[in-house]
Amino acid sequence: MTQPVLRRRLRTGGITAVLTVITLGIGSLFLTVGTASGGGHRPLLATLVMVGVPLLLVAAAASFAHVEVVVSQSVEGPGLEVRYAFGLLTQRFPADAILSVSAGPKSMIEMGGWGYRGSLRLFRYAALVTRSGPALELILTNRRRFVVTVDQPEDFVVALTAP
After folding, report:
1. Taking the model in full, what pTM does it have?
2. Three-state DSSP class for 74?
3. Mean pLDDT of the chain
């Protein structure tokens, strides 16, 4: 059983707003193209794209609507969880996978832009970027690295390095 020690919600309003505007734009474009076709028969693939793309964008916007970074204390020690979409998706970093933690300023350019960047499996590097500024950096086992931009990352460093 894990006990939350520190919890902080990420500021994701900018990403959510941009994804919402893109979704509305693409949805209205598809609606316009769909109604302009004169009601003829559309190929199945075109229909799937016209419905699927906006749904995927809505899912992406929803996953960034509420993102929370949590330090949880377990028997093994403190670990980090990143909870997306009100906790429906969770990325866990158990205590035994964390080799070191640090806090420092990061720019969006340095991390590749807004959103979730990279892949811990493929590139051994991933970043959850919601803005430029203070960030928490985890050095993980197997030479992997995870960065998340969060307010007051020093508090997370203290909580994750506590015995």
Report:
1. 0.72
2. coil
3. 82
